[in-house]
Known about the structure:
Two copies of one chain form a homodimer.
Chain A: H1 4-27, H2 34-40, H3 45-51, H4 56-79, H5 85-99, H6 106-118, H7 123-148, H8 158-178, H9 184-202
Chain A binds a DNA duplex through residues 3-5, 8-9, 33-35, 43-47, 49-50, 53-55.
Amino acid sequence: MAGLRERQKAKRHRAxxxxxxTLFKQNGYEAARIEAIAExxxxxxxxxxxxxxxxxxxxxxxxxxEVEEVLHQGEGVVAAPPGDAYEAIxxxxxxYYDHSLVYLTKEMWRTAMAFSIQSPDTPFSRRYRELDQxxxxxxxxLMTRLQQGGLLRAGVDTRAFGELTFLGLNGxxxxxxVTEGMALDALKAGMFRQVRALTTQIGTSxxx
Amino acid sequence: MAGLRERQKAKRHRAxxxxxxTLFKQNGYEAARIEAIAExxxxxxxxxxxxxxxxxxxxxxxxxxEVEEVLHQGEGVVAAPPGDAYEAIxxxxxxYYDHSLVYLTKEMWRTAMAFSIQSPDTPFSRRYRELDQxxxxxxxxLMTRLQQGGLLRAGVDTRAFGELTFLGLNGxxxxxxVTEGMALDALKAGMFRQVRALTTQIGTSxxx
DNA sequence: CTGCAAAACTGAACCAGTTCAACTTTTTTC
DNA sequence: GAAAAAAGTTGAACTGGTTCAGTTTTGCAG
Lengths: 208, 208
């Protein structure tokens, strides 16, 4: 059975994330002071740092949730992709993009990305890269499956193309988070164009 | 003729960049205190902030220099590319990568990237994106030229492929700066593989 | 139940980037 | 060339994330 200590720890952990989540949505990440988060979670500042190494670690908790859900949804697409290479890849891309603002704002994404680049040796950064890695693998998996289904040419290096596609969709996503005025539709349109160019070249004519 | 004020301003600007450059190389970007930079430039902290809005703006000065030189070298490649699509694109990529550590360390790159993502509305960020944009355009220009020379298939959307290639080389470069143990050769090898996969599919057989 | 060790909590102090009101220097005006 | 205006300089104070020495709480052995 879990002791008092364990239970309290879990409760506080949840309370802090809850408080942070609320304050982030309310006033943005930057504007949310640690002091305010601690207060809202009924905890001292010192205790906050007992649970999280950095303010940014709060984001990681949210980003992880986000990406894990996206990976799960993505599995569905890979398992039963549309019967056309262009449609299939776009479906996966759209799954990623559409989910991206459920828990996070653009500002929060920017902060998470920036932190993961700036401090690569933190647990945060390692985990973030790991999640990216998994997304990349999923794109590769889809391409491999399309190839097996005869929708991509036999000679295509699906790993290389999958990774390239991921880097592309990731790069465009960064542009999107960095451009306050850019809507989700513009992001999708941009990526769909890349996918169109790609599948026109490496796809077979089966689904054209 | 330039007044005393103008001359002093230019002199101080140079002195600060000079001091910062030295200290950054010596102990790294993070470790270089504004106070120390100001002191080395024989200027007060307040004056420093009269010349640069943020500490990171010092990086921009260096990054700009860096990228401008790279763009210049890249022009050479685009103007007279090797007679094979794979070789040509790799040559451009290598030009970019080889130059990347002349003025900047990995840590400095990370800081610059992180800042440009984190604070998109600063002059720093805008300029950084502009430089990225120019690099991207250069890749597109090369691809277009290769297509005109019959080294890429006629139907290929060189803009889409060029931009995708840039996003790819950029993404791998980020991985490189974030992985302290990764050597330049590993970075190049990774990108060359992508280019190989790409040119195998969209290249003509002329230079095979 | 008592005492002790380990774990967790606390908030005042720390640190480094940034700001700003007072001061100095340069330029302009007459 | 004196006086006012404009521009630039200064460092002490501010800000907000992070640390840490001292205190409290919990778990456990006797």
